[in-house]
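NIPA like domain containing 3
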Amino acid sequence: MDGSHSAALKLQQLPPTSSSSAVSEASFSYKENLIGALLAIFGHLVVSIALNLQKYCHIRLAGSKDPRAYFKTKTWWLGLFLMLLGELGVFASYAFAPLSLIVPLSAVSVIASAIIGIIFIKEKWKPKDFLRRYVLSFVGCGLAVVGTYLLVTFAPNSHEKMTGENVTRHLVSWPFLLYMLVEIILFCLLLYFYKEKNANNIVVILLLVALLGSMTVVTVKAVAGMLVLSIQGNLQLDYPIFYVMFVCMVATAVYQAAFLSQASQMYDSSLIASVGYILSTTIAITAGAIFYLDFIGEDVLHICMFALGCLIAFLGVFLITRNRKKPIPFEPYISMDAMPDSYLHNRQLLFKRYSNSRNLPHHNLESL
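Predicted structure tokens:
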């Protein structure tokens, strides 16, 4: 009798214990999400400040008679230090939060650059002109902030320790292998059209960047997670998959930078920023959802709100970059039409004398 009564007491105590552990696990996942999001926001904000500091250094040296090189100034070195600090924060954020949350937060750098550009603008504007000139930036910043809030609030809470066994298991899973096959085929087709058919459309180039970038962020999360576990005492550096991921991370990042450099030579930086952000974020979230199963167990409402946050952030970044000033093309100080007729007549005479001395056929200078 006593044995059955004690067994019944044990059975009654089981449900509260399991529910409390589930609640604590959910709160721990949310806490890790918050840590990762804050690290990513901090990193992108610091990187944006660093880039603007270095840009300010170059502009000040170009506009002064200071003979020093840019790397001999304290401002440039401060920008470099802040850039390394920001990149370290973004790198560490991948170890705490899902990839689908960290990737869209790069919109913070666009927001910060827009705000820094408005605050430190050197031109004087009337209030009416100022609002008309920067209304798109204000609206874009507001939309990007709202989108970022929705991303952080409704991001997936799935967390998995980045051990060597888990990374290897995801790497050889059939959904990711199928995704890799499709991505490799698409990448080869785009590269063929870009190299052989001279398809220099910005979407083609930035799709190449986005496909490489999706592999970069997948490997970054694996490397960062395994490093954090190793620092915490669970050594993961003796797994070969760590070095495979590290090599893939470096290789894809290098080729991604090369394609971005080629795109920057042909297109405006604001257009590259907006289109590149949209394409890279979309493909990277897809890769994270397939490789790390970020959205497994999430309800439809959370997924829809997360997608809405992405769309709002996309629109905000597009409006911010759309308002940036386009570079003014170079125009010669003196055109051929503005030259005196006597100058052109003398050039024609000199050319005819040179042609007679070399037995060359006569041509009109204006037709050359």
